[in-house]
Structure formats: structure tokens, C-alpha cells
Amino acid sequence: MEVNFCSSCGGEMETREIDGTPRRACTRCTFVHWGSYSVGVGALVVKDGKVLLVRRAQEPGKGYWTNPGGYAEQLEPIEETVRREVQEECGVDAVVRGVIALRDQPRAVHNVYIAFAMDYAGGEPTPDNVEVDAAGFYSLEEMREMHVAPFTKWLVDVALNGKTEGLTIDREPLVPLNGYGLFRT
Ligand SMILES: [Zn+2]
Predict the structure, then answer these.
(1) Which structural domain range is residue 25 located in?
(2) Which helix or strand (DSSP H or E) is residue 33 part of?
(3) What strands lie across the sheet with 13-18, from one edge to the other?
(4) pTM above 0.85, yes or no
(5) Cβ proximity of 86 and 92 under 8 Å
(6) Strand 21-26, strand 13-18: pairing
(7) Is residue 82 part of a domain?
(8) CA of 33 to the centre of ligand 1 (A)
(9) Distance 13 CA to ligand 1 centre (A)
């Protein structure tokens, strides 16, 4: 879909060659439409060898069991977004330990999905009955009888059988880096 108006100043957009690629750019200000992107965040909360799953009550994926998650908000650190989504969808408190997987999906809206390993901190899994209609901790054995989404199966394998801790949060970086959420090896 062509972008006709600038999302920064409302001015008219034109097609201009930038870095060897035709792109939509504003005729009034310096804004360039580089593309459309979204960032998904997902939670892998493991407790006693079981993984927290929710059953989707809405499309896309209605009826499938998935790990809790959502989309990054404009001004909210992703660490807080994923924590909030887990709380909202199924009433479980969990704290981010690190990033254990990433999925790249280049398409009309280029999506990058970041999967977090999270530590269980409290709460009984209780579905919100809006986004999800069931929730609980399940073993691989139990999941064999459930309608688990393929991507969730992959993430559960990473969560239970991953070889490293992944990227962990750096709360005290070597140099002051204010305003950054930092995850590192
Ligand atoms: Zn503009």
C-alpha cells in the first residue's frame, strides 16, 4: 500500500530514490517511510518442567494453545510488555530472565518476534476469557494431546532443551546507556 501523507508532519509524500531504492519520502520535512514493521514478544514461563500455555479465544489461531505474548507498544520497554501480557492474559506474575529465541518474518508488515525466558513469580493460571479461554502449566507429555500451535512447539523445545541461557539483561552496562534495554551474552 502506498503511503500518501507524512506520518510526521502530514505533508504530501513522493517517490524518491534513497540509497539506491525508490522510497516514499515527505516533500515538506525529512521523513522517509522505510517500511512497516512490528515487534512481537512472547513468554516462556517454565515451572517444575512444565510450560505456561494459553488457549487462544480469538483469531488468528483461535482454539490453538500458545505461549502468552503480544505486540511491543511504542514507548513501553519490551521487558515490561511481555510481563504485562502474561499478567493480563492469564494472571501469572513472571519476571524476564533473558532472550532465548528470535523469529524473523519478512512480509507486508515485517515482523520480528522475541521470545523471553521468564521466571515464575506467583499467581494461578486463570484465563482472561477475552483473548484466551484456558490457561495452565503443561508437560511435553500433556501437550501431545493438545492442539499446540507449531511455532509454540518450537519455542517450548527451546525453553526446555536450549543449550544456553541466551541473552540476559544487562542492568549495569560497562558505560552509561540511558534509555536502552540491554540484553547480552
Ligand atoms: Zn513530513
Answers:
(1) 1-35
(2) strand 32-33
(3) 13-18, 21-26, 32-33
(4) yes
(5) yes
(6) antiparallel
(7) yes
(8) 10
(9) 8
Residue 96 lies in a domain: yes
Q: What spacing in Å lies between the alpha carbon of 35 and ligand 1's midpoint? A: 15
CA of 140 to the centre of ligand 1 (A): 52
Calculate how far, in angstroms, residue 29's C-alpha sits from the geometric centre of ligand 1.
4
Domain count for the chain: 2
Backbone angles phi, psi at 164, to 5 degrees: -135, 175
Domain check: are 61 and 143 in the same one? yes
Cα–ligand 1 centroid distance for 76 (angstroms):
25
Rounded to the nearest angstrom, the distance between the alpha carbon of 73 and the centre of ligand 1 is: 23
Mean pLDDT per 10-residue interval, the chain, length 185 residues:
91 95 96 95 98 97 97 97 98 97 97 98 98 98 98 98 96 95 97
Q: Say whether both 51 and 98 belong to one domain.
A: yes
Instruction: Output the CA 62–ligand 1 centroid distance in Å.
Output: 40
In this structure, the answer to whether residues 57 and 94 fall within a common structural domain is: yes
How far apart, in whole angstroms, are the C-alpha atoms of residue 109 and residue 37?
5
Q: Which domain CATH number covers 20?
A: 2.20.70
